[in-house]
Specification:
Structural class: alpha/beta
Number of helices: 20
CATH architecture of the largest domain: 2-Layer Sandwich
Strand order of the largest sheet: 2-5-4-3-6-7
Distance between the termini: 55 Å
Pfam family, one: DNA_pol_A_exoN
InterPro entries: 3'-5'_exonuclease_dom, Exo_C, HRDC-like_sf, HRDC_dom, HRDC_dom_sf, RNase_D-like, RNaseH-like_sf, RNaseH_sf
Number of domains: 3
GO molecular function: 3'-5' exonuclease activity; nucleic acid binding; nucleotide binding
Mean pLDDT: 95
Protein name: Ribonuclease D
CATH topology of the largest domain: Nucleotidyltransferase, domain 5
């Protein structure tokens, strides 16, 4: 589409609606949305990087016949009534897995889903951000600039509300266009399986030892330093939770790693470190020093190991040394999936998850057939359309390797 055909969308067609902030206004909004027709566009704004956790601070909805509704989920923290009123209605989200957890916290869980980002991936669009998709598919440009704002701000500025309303302005129209493309490409049933799988997925289990994801932790070489990282991370998490502030604003990862490298012995040594000279790190300097001291003085038996024991295959770069046959299977399997993904114009990870390919290659079925490979893929969470496309060619590739090794 040429630039001349692209139309800037600067204002919601019906103007910026008032924010729903009271029980009566919420009930009116629910009745209005229930009386509308067709799918409901849904979006949520969080305050990532500003507040602790991922709660929603604004929920936007739009439906034909009802217009756009902006709900403040701070005073209106229970949207289960909206879920009941919209039972069975398809909800349209972009990158649904990002917003579904915070929507579930306030009682809004779709019965049916259409994810416009995932639809774009299955159709092979190279860039699937909402603004790019709306421009590419519908020919409109959306206002940008407030996605990373502190949405816990009250009152919300008018230009932020305009941005939020525009995020759902064309979402149903985008859904309609992408659904037609999926249908034409023979991928609609694939997409429907993917959407259903998103809704059926259980809540994510808390990550084991989340402190191990501290940025820069790879620089540490001793278990003692890892203990300091762990204690500082846990102390920071407690402070951040109590203050309802993003952990990175309380104490940056760089400060945690610097303290673990230097192992300061006195409070002055700690606050003299460059990463601890700012106002926020110094505000809780006594807390940080106690955490460092705890990590420095733990018995050796309580120090964390360098890494957690893996429950899956080892890192792929070690396969050639540990199991050359498995490394060959992985190379062949990846080639099969890449070729099929290219044939069907989609990213390889949407055709088959990389971890699924690794696990199949590391532990293939004892007798390799299309059926046995399909059973493994299904057990690993692959959808029926993925199994249908990949089980047979993967089985052929694995059989060829097995036959080759036997000769």
């Amino acid at each position: 589409m040429s630039e001349a055909e692209v139309v800037p969308l600067l204002e919601p067609r019906d103007g910026i609606p008032p924010v729903v902030e009271t029980p009566d206004a919420l009930q009116d909004a629910i009745e209005g949305l229930a009386a509308g027709e067709g799918p409901v566009a849904v979006d949520a704004e969080r305050a990532s990087g500003y507040r602790y956790g991922q709660r929603a601070y604004l929920v936007q909805l739009r439906r034909k016949g009802a217009g756009t509704v902006l709900v403040d989920p701070v005073p209106c923290s229970d949207l289960s009534g909206l879920r009941t009123a919209l039972a069975g209605t398809e909800m349209v989200l972009h990158a649904a897995t990002q917003d579904l957890p915070c929507l579930a916290e306030i009682g809004l869980v779709p019965d049916r889903l259409f994810d416009t980002e995932l639809a774009g991936r299955l159709l092979g669009y190279p860039r699937v951000g909402l603004g790019t998709m709306v421009e590419t598919v519908l020919g409109f440009t959306l206002e940008k600039g407030h996605s990373a704002a502190d949405w816990s701000t009250r009152p919300l500025p008018a230009d932020w509300l305009r941005y939020a309303a525009l995020d759902v302005e064309l979402l149903v129209e985008l859904r309609d266009a992408l659904r037609a493309e999926l249908d034409e490409a023979g991928k609609l049933s694939w997409a429907e399986e993917e959407f259903a799988a998103i809704l059926a997925a259980p809540p994510k289990e808390p990550r084991q030892d989340p402190w191990r994801r501290t940025s820069g932790i790879h620089r540490l070489r001793t278990r003692r330093s890892l203990a300091v990282v762990r204690e500082l991370w846990l102390a920071r998490d407690r402070v951040a939770r109590e203050r309802d502030v993003s952990p990175g604003r309380v104490l940056p990862d760089s400060a945690i790693v610097e303290a673990a490298l230097q192992l300061p012995r006195t409070p002055d040594d700690l606050t003299a470190l460059p990463a601890f000279r700012g106002r926020n790190p110094r505000r809780h300097a006594a807390v940080w020093f106690r955490a460092v001291q705890k990590g420095r003085t733990l018995p050796d038996t309580e120090l964390p190991e360098h890494s957690l024991p893996g429950e899956g295959p080892p890192p792929a770069h070690r396969w050639a040394e540990r199991d050359p046959a498995a490394a060959e299977r992985l190379t062949a399997s990846r080639a099969v999936v890449a070729a099929l993904a290219d044939e069907h114009t989609m990213p390889t990870e949407n055709l088959l998850q990389p971890d699924t390919v690794r696990r199949l290659a590391w532990t293939p079925p004892e007798t390799i057939t299309e059926e046995s490979v399909g059973l493994v893929l299904t057990a690993l969470g692959s959808r029926s359309w993925q199994v249908e496309l990949t089980a047979k060619p993967l089985a052929k590739a694995l059989v060829r390797l097995a036959t080759k090794s036997d000769t």
